[in-house]
Amino acid sequence: MALAAATAETWGIAGSTFLPAYLLIAATVGAGSMCARRALAEPGATKPLADLTDHPHEVAYLSGGGELAVWSALCAMHLRGTLIAADGTVRAVGRLDDAAGALERAIHATAGSPVGRRRLVFHRSVRPELAAIEERLVAGGFLLAEDRRRRIRLVGLWMLGVAALGLVRVLADIAEVRPVGLLVTALLVVTAVAVLQLTLSPRRTRRGNRALAALRDRHRALAPESAPDWHSHGPAGAALGVGLFGTGALAVSAPGFAREIAPPAAAAAGIRTSGLAVSGGGDGGGGGGGNGG
Fold first, then answer.
1. In 3D, which of 92, 85, 127 has the Cα closest to residue 108?
2. Where are the domains of the chain?
């Protein structure tokens, strides 16, 4: 009787049976959670939005968040002659014309006296305009609202439950002095997936990713490798080039302005700072930027 009790399997389930069953549960829950996250990343009803090509600063926000939108506006203002830069600061000059958008007007009002370029995105006059851009992109189905992103992250609780089951089994096996090496490995993988799902969520919707991909393909002439002449494309074209292809486009097409608006070390690296490298999406984070479906 004592021998039977000593050799009884944990929970009455042999380890060779529990491990495959646990892996099957993890794979099933993992697949279900991925499907749920993808579904949440594609809002159903969206408000119509005009062609994004006509809104280059919104394209920049969609691609890289508020900071890239500010870069886009600064490039347009530089070509319009309404802004000058020196040693990482910018200052508004001249008068804006009707073609200037709301973000450019907010920056122009902010930079009446020299202001650090990095501070613009946090300025009380600029932040409301960036928030308005985000609201329009969310309404258009290109960006995910924070509430939707939180719901996507909470899907990670499914995998966390699977991890909890594995942990309880590991502790029970340890108490019975049974081998747990393979189960611990599986538990670590499940836990890592759960942590990633709980902490990461896409910033853009799948529609937003498709829109960016289509715009980049349509406006390939604005890519840095094409060395576009921004004066021929005009302020709106320059702003769109930065929005679609990142700040590397600025270093190629306007190196003098790039050296003045960014520190030398950043300019030497193509001024792709603050996470502004254009990303293609994916199920990653993104605050400002980038992010996928």
1. 92
2. 14-42+154-199, 52-144+204-268
